[in-house]
Amino acid sequence: MSDLINLTIDGKPVQAAPGTLVINAAKQVGIEIPSFCYYDGLPSVAACRMCLVDVEKTPKLQVACTLPVAEGMVVRTETPTVREARKGTIEFLLTNHPLDCPVCDKGGECELQDMTFRYGAGESRFVEQKLHVDEQQWSPVVFFDAPRCILCYRCVRVCDDGMGVNALGVINRGAHAEIAPNHFDHLECDECGMCIDICPVGALTSGMYRYKTRPWEMHHVGTICTHCSNGCKTTLGIRNNEIIRGNNRDHSGINGEFLCIKGRYAFDFVHSPERLQSPLLRKNGSLEPVSWAEALTAVAAKFKEVRARNGKFAVIGSNHTTNEENYYLQKFAREALGTANIDHHHTGDVATLLDAVSGKTGALATTADLYHRKAILVVSSDLSQQHPFLSFQIRANVRHHEAHVYTVTPGPVREQKQAVRSIITVPGQELADVESLRDQLKTEPELVIVFGDAIKGDAVHQLVAFGDSLGIPVKYVCLVDYSNSRGAADMGLSPQLGPGYRPVGATGLAYDEILAAADLDVLWVVGANPLKRASLAATGAFVVVNEMFLTETAQRADVVFPAASAYEKNGTVTNVCGEVQRLKAGLQVMGTKPDLEIVGLIAKEMGINIGIWSSDKVFDEIRAGVHGYNIPLPIVATGGAAQTTPVNGHVPPGSRPDLIQSSRDTLFTSGSLGRYSKTLSSVLEAPGALYSGIRP
Amino acid sequence: MLYNEPSPLEVKIVTKRFGLPNSASLDTYLATEGFKAFRKAMEMSPEQIIEEVKVSALRGRGGAGFPAGLKWSFVPRTSPKPKYVIINADESEPGTCKDRLLMENDPHQLLEGILIAGRAIGAHKGYIYIRGEYRYLIEVMDRAIAEAYSRGYLGKNIQGTGFDFDIYTHSGAGAYECGEETALLDSIEGKRGIPRMKPPFPAVVGAWQSPTLINNVETLSSVPAIIRDGGAAFAALGPPKNGGTRMICLSGHINKPGVYELPVGFNLLRMIYEVGGGMRNGKKLKAVVPGGSSCPLLKAEECDISMDFDSLAKVKSMLGSGGTVILDEDTCMVRFALRIMKFYAHESCGWCIPCREGTTWLKKMLQRINDGGGQKSDISLLGELSNNMLGRTFCALGDAAAMPTISIVEKWPEDFEAHMNGRSCPYAHAAEPVLA
Hints:
The structure holds 2 protein chains of 2 kinds.
Chain A: E1 5-9, E2 12-16, H1 22-28, E3 52-55, E4 62-63, E5 74-76, H2 80-95, H3 111-119, E6 136-137, E7 142-144, H4 154-162, E8 168-171, E9 178-181, H5 194-198, E10 204-206, E11 219-224, E12 233-239, E13 242-247, H6 261-265, E14 280-283, E15 286-289, H7 292-308, E16 313-316, H8 323-336, E17 342-343, H9 350-356, H10 367-372, E18 375-379, H11 383-386, H12 388-401, E19 404-409, E20 421-424, H13 430-435, H14 438-442, E21 447-451, H15 458-469, E22 474-478, H16 485-490, H17 511-516, E23 522-526, E24 542-547, H18 552-556, E25 559-562, E26 571-574, E27 579-583, H19 595-606, H20 615-625, H21 633-637, E28 642-643, H22 671-674, H23 678-682
Parallel strand pairs in A: 1-5, 16-17, 16-23, 18-19, 18-21, 19-20, 21-22, 23-24, 24-25
Antiparallel strand pairs in A: 1-2, 3-4, 3-5, 6-7, 7-10, 8-9, 11-12, 12-13, 14-15, 14-25, 26-27, 27-28
Helix pairs in contact in A: 2-3, 7-19, 8-19, 8-20, 9-15
Chain B: H1 26-31, H2 36-43, H3 46-55, H4 68-73, E1 84-89, H5 99-105, H6 107-121, E2 125-130, H7 135-150, E3 166-171, H8 181-188, E4 212-216, H9 217-229, H10 231-235, E5 245-252, E6 258-263, E7 266-267, H11 268-275, E8 285-289, E9 298-299, E10 306-307, H12 309-314, E11 323-328, H13 333-347, H14 353-370, H15 376-389, H16 396-411, H17 413-417
Parallel strand pairs in B: 1-2, 1-4, 2-3, 5-11
Antiparallel strand pairs in B: 5-6, 7-10, 8-9, 8-11
Helix pairs in contact in B: 2-6, 2-9, 3-6, 5-6, 6-9, 13-14, 13-16, 14-15, 14-16, 15-16
């Protein structure tokens, strides 16, 4: 490592790579240089002047956030001049700041408070009148209180560079300069709230959280967002069994600082007044609230009766329930009910991809690969709408590593802005258009191919064959829709494939076939809403539904069990890249039970033993028996993400490509769940209207 | 038109056509050695041109006084990117009003200077960034540019030399900050005018990410004379390392305010009493702003000084942009400081904290002192706050606000003390201080 640069910071010798900024070099040896505007990963703006340091042989104090290290440089961060400068800067900052800390949302976790505490003066010398601007509401999600703003431009930069949305700017001059939204008095944007979380003070606050609590009154639970398949960690702030906010302030998890509107605000379905809190049993034609005991007895009795006469069962599982619940459900279906009629809504052809890359090592990309790999090819997906974190990773990759992005999509997508080449394709033409990129892709050192549901069945094999023929290392991501879509497939919620894509004896009915089978005796739907789009042919079937809400499917049920949401249970989920992460229960909603427990209680009521229904025990069973899931426990247990290994061997065909269909959710929809989120339904933007300036 | 009678003490280099009939026309220009320098420059190599400018000891006339030849030599001529010459005509420094006269009375001299600079750095496009308030000058320059095009002094193959050059005018929108060269670049690119991080310097990464030479109007207007008559002759006009003449904008409490072209290094007292006709109404001299409102002020006893960059630096002031404001004994320095600070608080772009908050705080405090609400402790606080801005802001605007304030508080504390504790301004009978 002879190319490292040697310098001294506060007398400590430091070695840093060329180009390292002094502010980061100091961090390496545990010296914090205070700053407001500097933010890792975003361009430096040197606006706050808080990070001024003394550098030997320079007449003026230097800005540590823009100053690269140099050989022999001698930096001092704690001289009287430096301390005086920081004190002066804080004093300037507080002149027009309202100092309304007692009522400010940020009070207690505010960087301006902390900096003033550490570096500021004890008293104010400012006796003039402060400037005042009234607070503004920019969207259901974003509020702006200009007097609190210290103009660090983090929000502007994260919106421009991080999100690629460019919705924030600066208006006016001097002390009247303020941040402004892109549409006069309101925002039209992703409503991701990145600007709010990145704000070091209480200038940008969220409609969900503002004036609701003091930060220290909450306890924080890090869990995984239950909406899309990206598997972002969200930290729930909970007070009195109520989720007050979601964010990722500690930047842990695969998503670091990133969260979209769903991870940050769409937890609110949990507290929807429409939430089911008691089992419902159909009596005299209408669903009546009953006790858990009564409902369980009714279901167990029916199941036993139908089982005894070899009746026809079918089970539809969920894209949102945990791996443990999915595993336990299919085990119950196959062993206790003796049926192979089990399926879920497939949103991407994971099984075929696993078959196609069988025998290859390192062919499945992680979310981190999208940030690190030199080239990315996006086929038939609007990532910024459906996979916002993957989209964020790619943008950061371009920004930090100058990655090359290629897109082959049916319409304009945000990635086009950064793409070296973009092709607008038509359904059926995707592979031909990908083929036309061959010469260019061959020149890349490596590639990640991300593909949507347009590539399924044979097309997946062809795409992988194309990747193989490029002669460079290629990794793949098969996009799926929901938080545990991947886990549902992995855990064997399929009529022909058991856990770990193991072939099972007899092939049962697939999703559409279940709904079309007129002779069903029992249909059990766990956390899904198939009757939203289709009707049930078996009009006489006994329908059991585990649900949080009285959905179209629940309304048809004979028994409805009120289910706990992902935020109310423990377990694991597997994201779009096959990364297993841990759910942590944050709260309990009275009257509900996790699906794992519901299945267990039914088994118990039926007098069947399929194992203990604790998530830890079931996860042990999964790790021991499900191919790919023998992952290091400490990683998952401590809140990390462990990628499952691919199936090493042929995955038998039989998946029904024709039934694979993405729901095409947008940033502001989330299947049936999204309907019960007040936030998601309150934002007014038409998603996709953000692409002005992109030429199709 | 001209606004004042010329002085016999002037040395007419860049103003030599001022006062001629139709001085702004190409015919007049051609009849008075116009484009002679351009033809000569076309026979010189770029290196020779830059060398000649270096020999001339021409220093930037925008205020900072950076050696022009050196600046030209920083532009990487071998870069595959296009290069640009940008003319800073955003003349906004209070007290300064020279570039307008140069553009109004002799626009072709500026155009010729631009062509020579373009030849020297390998540029083929020039943009004249004119402050928005100078709307009529945009028309003057546009007329001159159109005339030059129609007669083959701009465009393709200028005068058969094979050299192509296009010049455009670009209007500012009224921000002082856009006179800062990198803020000007952002502005010309259509962005909010805020300064850029340096390095990279504009010579390497300037307009549209390309190598860019930015010079003041007076700087480039001096170039034809330098090439035509030789750098050495130009350098000989001033003291060492301070070549040529300066357009001095004399204003304030003197009998003959106006813009005078004087050799660099002209004595300030002679400027006041011989060129400027002495103090108005026979009053005593109190203070001088040597080169625009950003410069620390001089006390009367400091005024026997050579007006060159280095001499003024020795007394901790600056030659600046030639806006010399003379203040007499009736001037209230509190009001003067307030007037200056109002300007800077209004013009601070708001990008960095010390400038944005410091100028506004100082303005409010000076207003309060001026209104009789001052306390003894305010005097030292003025100095401390100014020093907290000094050297810590993103660009020089914060320094420009801090430096004169520091000098005023240091040199005239008695004026502040006289306002304390509710007492009314001792100069209340005098007229409002003048500042162009």
